[in-house]
Amino acid sequence: MAKRLIISILILIILASLAIIGYIVVGQGQIDVTKFWPLGGSSTNQPTTLPLFPTSTDILATGTTTGISTASPAGSTATGTIMSTDTPEGTITSLSLAETNALGLNLLSNGTDQLIFIDRPTGNIYSLGINNNLQRLTYSTLTGIGAVQWGKDKIGYRSLISYLDGRNINSYWGIFTLSSSTEAVALALEPTQGKIIAGASSPDRQKIFTLEANGDGTVGYLSPWSDQGKKKIWSAPVSNWLISWPQAEIISLTTKPAASIGGSLFFLNPITGNLKTVLTGISGLETLVNPLGNSVIFSRSYGGRLTLYSLDLKNDKTETIGINTLAEKCVWVDNEVIYCAVPKTIPSGLYPDDWQKGKIKFSDDIWKIDLAKKVTIMTLPLKGDYDLVNLVFSAERNTLYAINKLDNSVQALIIP
Q1: Does 341 share its domain with 376?
Q2: Does 15 reside within a domain?
Q3: Residue 168 included in any domain
Q4: Do residues 239 and 216 lie in contact, with contact meaning Cβ atoms separated by under 8 Å?
Q5: 264-275: average pLDDT
Q6: In what order do the strands lie in the sheet with 113-119?
Q7: How many helices (H) and strands (E) would you count in the chain?
Q8: Containing H/E element for 19?
Q9: Helix or strand or coil: residue 26?
Q10: For residue 219, with 0-12 CB atoms within 10 Å meaning exposed, 13-18 middle and 19 or more buried, which class applies?
Q11: Residue 353 shares a structural domain with residue 246
C-alpha cells in the first residue's frame, strides 16, 4: 500500500513539473537575451556558441509576437519562388526568376518601391515593379561584373559598376532611368579615373564614398557620382575593406573577414574625417550597422562555429542575439528590427572562409529579431535549399527579397 502511495506521489510531482515547464516554455514565448556574455573584459572570457533557439528543433509558439512558429503562415510561400502581391480576388500569382543571375539587389524609388539589380553575365539592369513585373531597363553589355552601387541625383539614377578585365579591376559611372516604358535603352557609361575597389552610396543616394587602390594601401574619396569634385577624406595602409554608409555622419569600415584574423570595425565621419574604433580583434568579423548608427549586429567565428551579437553603442553593451548566422545574411527593417536568413544547421568549419569559397552550403529559414523587445522569432520556414544573401526589405510590399547564393537567382518572400 505504501509503495503504491509513493508511486502515486511521484507521478503527481512529475506531472506538476511538466505543467510548470510547459507554462514557462509555451506561455512566455520569449527569451531575455540581456543575460548573455558581453564583449570586453578579460580576453579569456569566451562567448557561448550555442544558439538560444536551436534551429533544428521544432517549437510550437502561442501568440503572434513571441516565440517560434515552424508552420508556414497562411497566404505566404515557403518555397523561395518569387511571389507577387495579392490580386484583388485574393489569389496569389507567381513569377519565377530562377533563371536570373543577379548582383546588387537594392531598392530605389520613382514614387513606389523599385527593386533594382544587374544581370551578371550581360550587365543589363533590371527592375522589379510593385506588382513584381520584371522589366529590362538597359541593353548595354558588360561582362565579368563583380560589384555595383546605386544612387540618385538631379540628373537621374546613378550606378557605379566594377568589372574584371583580365587581372585588372575597371569601373564605370553609369546613368539610367526608371521608366514605365517597356523599351530598354543604352546605359550611359563613363570610365572612372581611379582604380576603384569598393563603393558605398550615402543614405540619401546623392553621393558615393569610394576606395581606390594606392600601392599597397587604400585612399577614400567622396564624390557626386563622378570624378568631378571628388575629395580625399581618408587613407589606410590596408587594402581589404568592406564599406557601407548607413547614416549621414557615419561611414562603416570593416576589415575583410577571415577566421584566422582578428577583424576590426571603424566609423569614419565624412564631414570631419574623424575615425573611431568600434570593434577590434574579433575573428571572422562581419558587421551591419542600423540606420541611426547607434546599433551594430556582428558575427564572430570561434572554435569552428558562428555566433551573432548586437552592440548597443549608446549604452556600450554587447549581447548574443540568440541565433547563429553571418551578419551579411541579415537586413535592418528599422532601427530595432532585423530579418536574418538563418541556417537550419551549421557544420563545424572556418567561417566565413569555407562558406564564401563554397566548401560549405547553408539551407536557411527566415527569422525576425526585435532588439527592443528582446524577442527572436522564426517568421518563415523555407522548404528547399536557399542560401540567402543580399537581403532587401520592402515595407511597401511587405516582401523580403534576396539572392540565393547557390544559383544567384532572385528570391522574394512575403512576410506574414
Answers
A1: yes
A2: no
A3: yes
A4: yes
A5: 97
A6: 102-109, 113-119, 125-128, 134-136
A7: 2, 29
A8: helix 2-22
A9: helix
A10: middle
A11: yes
CB atoms within 10 A of CB 327: 24
Q: Residue 91 region, left (φ>0) first, then alpha (ψ -120 to 50), else beta? A: beta
Length of the chain: 416
Predicted confidence band of residue 61 (pLDDT cuts 50, 70, 90) = very low
Q: At residue 40, does pLDDT exceed 80?
A: no
Does the pLDDT value for residue 98 go beyond 70?
Answer: no
β-strand pairing of 317-320 with 250-255? unpaired
Whole-angstrom distance, CA of residue 70 vs CA of residue 44: 37
pLDDT band at 182 (very low <50, low <70, confident <90, very high): low
User: Do residues 37 and 141 both lie within one domain?
Assistant: no
Domains held by the chain: number: 2
Higher local confidence (pLDDT), 216 or 24: 216
State pTM to two decimals.
Answer: 0.77
- Residue in the structure block whose three cell numbers are 528547399: 384
Beta strand ranges found along 186-230 (DSSP E):
188-191, 196-201, 208-214, 217-223
pLDDT-derived band at 54 (thresholds 50, 70, 90) equals: very low
Same domain, 269 and 367: yes
Residue 367, in any domain of the structure? yes
Confidence tier at 93 by pLDDT (50, 70, 90): very low
* Rounded Cα distance, 220 and 207, in Å: 13
Side chain identity at residue 257, one-letter code: P
* Range of the structural domain that residue 136 is part of: 101-203
Residue with cell 529590362: 136
369 vs 45, which has greater pLDDT?
A: 369
